[in-house]
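Show me any protein, fold above all:
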Amino acid sequence: MNFHKIVELEKYLDVAHHIPGRIRIKFSPLILTRPVALAAIKEHTELPEAIKDARVNMSARSVVIEYDPEEIRPELIEELIQGKDQAKKAEIVSDLYGRLMKNA
């Protein structure tokens, strides 16, 4: 899953648990009826180096993302998933990819 897809799939996602450096995202069972959305959840390409690991657990309907909280501020991750301001989300994604992919 990349940050662009997180924004696109927001209506299916909810933060279940978050501590700096690790976030568990629950996804709605409705995503299982949308093959494109389900594929996006399973995809792990285009992730910046600051993402240490991303694991999908289909039976628990969750994704765990481990990240470097020094590189990615925890509140930005929450804003991407639960925020309502689309312009702010686009700005966050642009900043993350612009800044973090340069370091990769």
Q: What stands out?
A: The two ends are 17 Å apart (CA to CA). The first helix runs from residue 3 to 8. The longest strand covers residues 13-19.
